[in-house]
UniProtKB/TrEMBL annotation:
Coiled-coil regions listed: none
Keyword annotations of the record: DNA-binding, Transcription, Transcription regulation
Pfam family, one: HTH_18
Alphabetical list of InterPro entries matching this protein: Homeodomain-like_sf, HTH_AraC, HTH_AraC-typ_CS, Tscrpt_reg_HTH_AraC_N
Name of the molecule in the record: AraC family transcriptional regulator
Protein's organism: Exiguobacterium alkaliphilum
Biological classification of the source: Bacteria, Bacillati, Bacillota, Bacilli, Bacillales
Domain spans labelled HTH araC/xylS-type: 185-283
Length: 291
């Protein structure tokens, strides 16, 4: 798999391959912390090491680990072990709820308010079956004539195997209408589509068909964040992208993501990313954070 990745890409980054939903990740140097939204996905780390912050929790990915994100999660990640000779390399397969339902169906068990929730991002050891199906999916990059027929079958097999593993209950609950995980995903999808707007806890609780207190408890169990903290991270990550990629000025970026007060925006930006917007963007572009 390492050989296929290195033959299939031209340099560092997250590369979307011709196989639908398949990404090759390659990083040859230790990176600065990068913020992004982890979409529902399966990732097999082939070599190197990466640290990811989900809220205040730190997860470490190493070669041989399987990493599964069951819902959209704003994270800050940093490759901590990589060299030109031994780069960080991983293979990622994104999936949707429809993909999951196609692979494992809608379980018929009824879920109640007391069910135990699990984090929406978890790390474990890969097994032979997961490595085998990931290898077959990866090989399709060099067998384009087979992609249309075999890629959907391999992806379905991958999701089925994940549902049978130690964290399968997370994916089973997610695909089960009426479960708390299914309801929390609905709230997450709503926030993702409306994060620049003013959202209130009562509105989000109504979307999830639960009380405000229940929403907070279950949402935090899955994401480590409250719903409004989750929204704030989405806003700040999008603002950072606007500042870096589109050269927006600070006030414009703040307004576009829903802030009315540039000073509040700057305070919350510095709290999340460790420096002011101006210093952070200068650091991203030049490697210096001098004000």
């Amino acid at each position: 798999m390492i050989d296929i990745v290195q033959r299939g890409i031209a340099g560092d980054g997250i590369h979307h391959m011709e196989v639908p939903s398949l990404y090759f990740i390659h990083q040859s140097v230790v990176s600065d912390p990068i913020s992004r939204v982890n979409k529902p996905s399966y990732c097999l780390v082939l070599q190197g090491e990466k640290e990811v912050l989900l809220g205040d929790e730190k997860l470490i990915y190493q070669g041989g680990n399987s990493v599964v994100a069951s819902v959209d999660l704003p994270v800050i990640g940093q490759v901590t072990e990589a060299t030109a000779e031994t780069p960080y390399i991983a293979i990622m397969v994104e999936f949707t709820l429809d993909d999951l339902v196609d692979a494992i169906g809608h379980p018929t068990d009824r879920f109640v308010d007391g069910e135990i929730e699990r984090r929406g991002l978890f790390v474990g050891e890969s097994d032979d079956a997961l490595r085998d199906v990931t290898l077959r999916l990866t090989k399709l990059v060099e067998q384009p004539e087979h992609i249309a027929t075999l890629a959907p079958l391999y992806k379905k097999e991958l999701l089925y195997l994940l549902s049978q593993g130690p964290f399968g209950d997370v994916l089973t609950h997610l695909s089960s209408e009426g479960s708390r995980a299914f309801q929390i995903k609905g709230v997450i999808d709503y926030i993702m589509g409306n994060f620049t707007k003013v959202l209130r806890n009562e509105e989000l609780a109504q979307v999830g068909n639960m009380s405000v207190s229940s929403l907070h408890r279950h949402f935090k169990e899955v994401t480590t964040l409250s719903p409004l903290q989750y929204q704030k991270q989405l806003r700040l990550q999008e603002a950072r992208r606007l500042l870096l990629m589109q050269s927006a000025d600070i006030g414009e970026a703040a307004f576009q993501v829903g802030y009315e007060s540039p000073s509040q925006f700057s305070r919350e930006y510095a709290r999340l990313f460790g420096m002011s917007p101006r210093a952070d963007i200068r650091h991203q572009r030049t490697g210096t954070s001098s004000e």
